[in-house]
Specification:
Layout: E1 9-12, H1 20-26, E2 31-37, H2 45-56, E3 60-67, H3 73-85, E4 90-95, H4 97-112, E5 133-137, E6 149-155, E7 161-167, E8 175-178, H5 188-207, H6 213-235, H7 252-272, H8 276-288, H9 292-306, H10 308-323, H11 333-346, H12 363-371, H13 385-397
Parallel strand pairs: 1-8, 2-3, 2-4, 4-5, 5-8
Antiparallel strand pairs: 6-7
Helix pairs in contact: 3-4, 5-6, 5-7, 5-9, 6-7, 6-10, 8-9, 8-12, 9-11, 10-11, 12-13
The chain binds fe (ii) ion.
């Protein structure tokens, strides 16, 4: 028995941002809370165009620009206050994963009439449908524009920071506007990190114990697109800011491939879950501030190497999709792990956590957090605690040969 649920309407293509305002109007919105990060996105041409188009449709909008990386639950609550104070009736998340996840949290919080913290890491489920929620990604990575998940940082009374993933059917945005032109001004390092996040989603969902033939299809196509285009997207990402109307920038096909891959991988992870790459990347990010995509990129080859005995055949499938050699030679599981490591090396991903500047002082805290990862059971190998400790040791100072 399989279940598959991907209810988000997706609009995809260069320039499709302009569809946003008319579609929101059709949803009956009169005032949208526009959730962004604090810096560059909010001053981008895309953002300005969106504002103008909302104005042209007669939709009031209120800009909530307080979202930093991995938003704390208190930021979500502040956004919910702004939403209520201004009489908003729709929410738009515009930016990377953090603003979109924050928008999801605000939507759920205002619908429930309770602080988001009540639902994060507590097991309490949302019970009420959310206001119209639109997601507009400006990076090609998280896929959160189509997922049932959102990640928030919880800070406890001792100042301990942990990232908590939450899932709910109410988190699926009603509309995802995936416009690859919005990704044109990403610097290569961001393209690399977010692209490897998408690859991690596709690979972890593919080897997940909860994968299905339907989720597999999304994973393999995402992996194929990433194998084909991530290097080019990084090499040719423009160094200057590009006008939103400029459709002749470098590597447009690579950008489109990566935008599509991130969305496909988001659909897949909502069905099949993730695994211990994310199990370690979450505490690494929460405690050290290392960007989520970069943490995944570093950890991915180590976890896949450890999964060879349990997920060998599926790793071979991944290798075939990633290297896309028309089936001439089916890669071995070991070949696949090397291909993943090689891709990371080619786009500037450090070999291990130490090389990325993560201090050993975090070792025990990272391990403790990873041991309680809520999706640990999706891993195709039931890692023992001792195996996860040994794995983290390798992640710190080891190297997977490319
Ligand atoms: Fe991720």
């Amino acid at each position: 028995m399989y279940e598959f649920c991907a209810p988000t309407k997706i609009i995809f293509g260069d320039g499709c941002l302009s569809e946003t305002a008319p579609r929101i109007k059709k949803m009956g919105a009169t005032c949208a809370l526009l959730v962004t990060g604090r810096s560059s996105t909010a001053s981008s041409a895309g953002f300005k165009n969106l504002g103008k188009e909302l104005d042209a449709e007669g939709i009031r909008w209120v800009h909530f620009a307080e979202v930093g990386a991995d938003p704390e639950t208190t930021i979500v609550d502040r956004g919910a206050e702004v939403y209520r104070a201004n009489g908003c009736d729709a929410i738009i998340g515009f930016g990377g994963g953090s603003p979109i996840d924050c928008a999801k949290g605000i939507a759920a919080s205002v619908a429930e009439g309770r602080p988001i913290r009540d639902f994060v890491g507590t097991g309490l489920a949302f019970s009420v449908p959310v206001p119209p929620l639109v997601a507009i990604p400006t990076t090609a990575g998280t896929g959160t524009e189509v997922t049932n998940a959102a990640v928030f940082t919880v800070v406890d009374e001792n100042g301990h920071r942990s990232k908590k993933g939450t899932s709910s059917q109410f988190y699926f945005p009603r509309l995802a506007v995936v416009d690859p032109l919005l990704h044109a001004s990403m610097p290569p390092s961001l393209t690399a990190a977010t692209g490897m996040d998408a690859l991690t989603h596709a690979i972890e969902a593919y080897v997940s114990r909860f994968h299905t033939p339907l989720s597999d299809m999304y994973c393999l196509e995402a992996i194929r697109l990433i194998g084909r285009s991530l290097r080019a997207a990084c090499e040719k990402a423009p160094q200057r800011s590009i006008s939103i109307s400029d459709s002749t920038t470098a590597a447009p096909f690579a950008r489109r491939d990566m935008a599509m891959a991130a969305t496909l991988a988001g659909v897949a992870l909502s069905q099949a879950g993730l695994g211990m790459v994310h199990g370690f990347a979450h505490p690494v990010g929460a405690m050290t501030g290392l960007a989520h995509g970069l943490a995944n990129a570093i950890l991915l080859p180590f976890v896949m190497n450890a999964l060879i005995p349990d997920a060998g055949e599926r790793l071979c499938d991944i290798g075939a999709a990633l290297t896309d050699d028309n089936g001439e030679k089916r890669p071995s599981a070991e070949d696949t792990v090397r291909a993943i490591a090689r891709l990371g090396r080619d786009i500037g991903i450090p070999d291990n956590l130490e090389a990325a500047g993560v201090s050993m002082t975090y070792f025990e805290s990272i391990l403790t957090d990873a041991l309680s990862y809520r999706r640990r059971k999706a891993s195709p190998r039931a890692f023992t605690d001792a195996e996860l400790r040994a794995l983290l040791e390798r992640m710190y100072g080891g190297k997977v040969e490319a």
